[in-house]
UniProtKB/TrEMBL annotation:
<feature type="signal peptide">
    <location>
        <begin position="1"/>
        <end position="21"/>
    </location>
</feature>
<dbReference type="GO" id="GO:0004650">
    <property type="term" value="F:polygalacturonase activity"/>
</dbReference>
<comment type="similarity">
    <text>Belongs to the glycosyl hydrolase 28 family.</text>
</comment>
<keyword id="KW-0677">Repeat</keyword>
<keyword id="KW-0961">Cell wall biogenesis/degradation</keyword>
<keyword id="KW-0325">Glycoprotein</keyword>
<dbReference type="GO" id="GO:0071555">
    <property type="term" value="P:cell wall organization"/>
</dbReference>
<dbReference type="InterPro" id="IPR011050">
    <property type="entry name" value="Pectin_lyase_fold/virulence"/>
</dbReference>
<keyword id="KW-1015">Disulfide bond</keyword>
<dbReference type="Pfam" id="PF00295">
    <property type="entry name" value="Glyco_hydro_28"/>
</dbReference>
<keyword id="KW-0732">Signal</keyword>
<dbReference type="GO" id="GO:0005975">
    <property type="term" value="P:carbohydrate metabolic process"/>
</dbReference>
<keyword id="KW-0326">Glycosidase</keyword>
<keyword id="KW-0964">Secreted</keyword>
<protein>
    <recommendedName>
        <fullName>galacturonan 1,4-alpha-galacturonidase</fullName>
        <ecNumber>3.2.1.67</ecNumber>
    </recommendedName>
</protein>
<dbReference type="GO" id="GO:0047911">
    <property type="term" value="F:galacturan 1,4-alpha-galacturonidase activity"/>
</dbReference>
<dbReference type="InterPro" id="IPR012334">
    <property type="entry name" value="Pectin_lyas_fold"/>
</dbReference>
Length: 433
């Protein structure tokens, strides 16, 4: 149908209005000084009308430029904005300076913080040599400096967002966290947090911490020294797929119920992932004496190579450095139901004496009493609080060639687990095939 002339004109003028409403901000750069104050001033400048660069805008860090992010950068609420990192960004090399900002009372929680809004895209360069965030983390790792370390990126309180093509090189510690955000797509990001010094471990370099609702993580590549992705408390409908994780502590859910907290995690799917040379592949962790619920969590189609604990569930976590396990018989536990581990294949690292680089105490923080190192699955459950925790279709070998094993205690769960529930050989039951 042909619209009448006036309607076509109206349509045309609204298109023009839309086009002209899109503003572009090229982030200015000055060699040798902090680029954050100038950007912050521009973002808060409303002389061009409220929200000049904070709605319907593109904010561009130019290619072939190395920006000095020498103080924390806080984006105000953004609506319909794309932030494009075409050039490199770099943290200060001065550790004391970073620590002062992180320890300050007005610190917003990350070195780069997004404080809400809708339809926000954060993208990196497609050029592999550009668009890197350089954290200078090696300087911290080399001296085991762990005081007042920053999170990299807090993508907080955003409704409708994308994080894509970002690249992070040697972050100081944790990378991305998405607290309070909903409807996110996070894809094709790269995190390289491997240490160049075998005796300097990249502690707490978690890749992604998902916290919120309806978030999809796809095709991300992570080499690091802590969780590849961790689903944190108060999260629903989170998917991770087609990922690669190396050196990491796995595809994790938790920790839930610390200090009796009432936690909630529901509907989580991890699928099609490669776990290479990691401590865990799939992990669930809640604290002794916790509360709340974790339900409908599936890990499936996981290839694991050289992994110490391919599948590990504990409802009895406590800080082993603070003494013996507390007696939890009179308090609640985080209730877990419908946890499924399906289609896992690979090799268990059972090399005698081998330790993950994060092991700096005796026993290690990940020590499991009575484990042989050959377990492909460990279910450490709490009586009366776990139902339908199932492993199906597991195929494993050990690096030494010994048969694979399992740990499970029939007094802790009354539903079938998919294998003979015992501390001993791994023997799948009819449910487990
Ligand atoms: C704010 O923007 C106006 C218009 O572009 C410009 O004239 C003014 O110098 C800016 N103020 C600051 C503090 O950047
Ligand atoms: C960046 O520099 C390279 C090499 O000098 C050049 O080919 C390229 O066009 C530049 N890119 C931009 C966006 O300026
Ligand atoms: C989202 O924001 C971008 C600009 O970053 C804009 O082009 C696009 O139209 C917006 N989408 C919606 C659905 O408003
Ligand atoms: C590092 O930062 C601290 C704190 O701001 C400052 O006192 C010190 O002079 C800086 N060191 C160097 C080498 O710039
Ligand atoms: C997100 O919203 C909560 C609740 O209003 C607020 O406490 C928190 O500071 C916000 N986070 C960010 C990063 O803005
Ligand atoms: C993924 O990111 C890389 C750069 O890190 C880029 O070369 C590639 O084109 C991106 N892929 C897609 C599908 O966007
Ligand atoms: C950007 O940073 C990466 C990673 O540190 C580096 O390999 C690359 O050479 C840098 N690119 C430029 C243009 O400085
Ligand atoms: C989670 O997904 C379900 C099914 O798609 C939907 O009904 C529910 O509203 C979602 N939860 C949230 C908090 O968006
Ligand atoms: C697996 O990880 C090891 C150790 O980090 C590395 O040397 C190897 O290249 C990785 N394999 C693949 C296929 O990426
Ligand atoms: C778990 O998933 C099942 C099947 O999809 C659904 O019926 C049930 O409501 C879900 N439970 C929770 C707590 O979300
Ligand atoms: C245990 O959980 C029940 C039901 O959720 C709740 O009513 C009770 O307050 C909890 N007890 C403790 C000690 O947290
Ligand atoms: C370890 O095995 C010993 C001997 O079978 C048993 O007494 C002990 O309770 C086990 N410890 C744990 C934590 O399962």
């Amino acid at each position: 149908m042909r619209p009448p002339q006036t309607q076509r004109l109206l349509l045309l003028s609204s298109l023009v209005a839309l086009a002209s409403a899109q503003t572009t901000l090229i982030v200015p750069h000055t060699d040798g000084s902090d680029d954050v104050p100038a950007l912050t001033a521009l973002l808060s400048n409303t002389s061009n009308g409220p929200g000049s660069y904070t709605s319907e805008a593109s904010i561009i860090f130019s290619a072939n430029t190395t920006y000095n992010v020498w103080s924390p950068l806080v984006f105000p609420e953004l609506n319909d904005v794309e932030v494009r990192i075409e050039g490199n960004l770099t943290y200060p090399e001065n550790i004391t300076l970073v620590q002062e900002y992180v320890g300050a009372s007005n610190y917003m929680g990350a070195w780069i913080t997004f404080t809400g809004g809708k339809n926000v895209t954060l993208s990196g360069s497609r050029d592999p040599t550009q668009g890197w965030m350089n954290g200078n983390g090696q300087l911290w790792w080399d001296i085991a400096q762990q005081t007042n370390r920053p999170y990299g990126w807090l993508f907080g309180n955003i409704t409708g967002g994308v994080i894509r093509n970002l690249k992070v090189y040697k972050p100081i510690a944790w990378n991305f966290i998405t607290t309070g955000s909903t409807d996110l797509l996070v894809y094709n990001n790269t995190i390289l947090a491997g240490s160049s010094n075998a005796s300097a471990y990249p502690f707490n370099t978690d890749g992604f911490v998902a916290q919120g609702n309806n978030q999809v993580y796809e095709s991300n590549y992570v080499v690091n020294g802590d969780d590849c992705i961790r689903i944190a408390d108060q999260s629903m409908n989170i998917t991770w797929r087609n990922g690669y994780c190396e050196g990491s502590h796995g595809l994790s859910v938790g920790s839930l119920g610390a200090s009796g907290a009432d936690s909630m995690i529901m509907n989580v799917l991890f699928e099609n992932s490669i776990m290479n040379h990691t401590l865990y592949a799939a992990r669930f962790k809640s604290w002794t004496g916790g509360n709340g619920i974790a339900a409908n969590i599936t890990w499936r189609n996981v290839l694991f190579n050289d992994v110490m604990f391919p599948i590990y569930v504990t409802q009895n976590y406590w800080d082993q450095s603070l003494g013996p396990k507390p007696n939890a018989s009179n308090v609640n536990e985080t209730h877990i139901s419908n946890l499924l581990f399906e289609n896992f294949a690979g090799s268990v690292n059972d090399i005698p004496g081998y330790q993950d680089g994060s092991c700096v105490s005796d026993p290690c923080w990940y020590y499991v009493a009575n484990a042989t190192g050959k377990e492909v699955v460990i279910f450490d459950l709490y009586p009366g609080s776990a139902t339908n925790v199932v492993a199906q279709n597991l195929f494993g070998t050990t690096v030494t060639g010994a048969p694979i094993a399992a740990m499970c205690n029939t007094s802790t769960i009354s539903t079938e687990v998919g294998f003979v529930c015992q501390d001993g050989p791994y023997i799948p039951t009819s449910l487990g095939w």
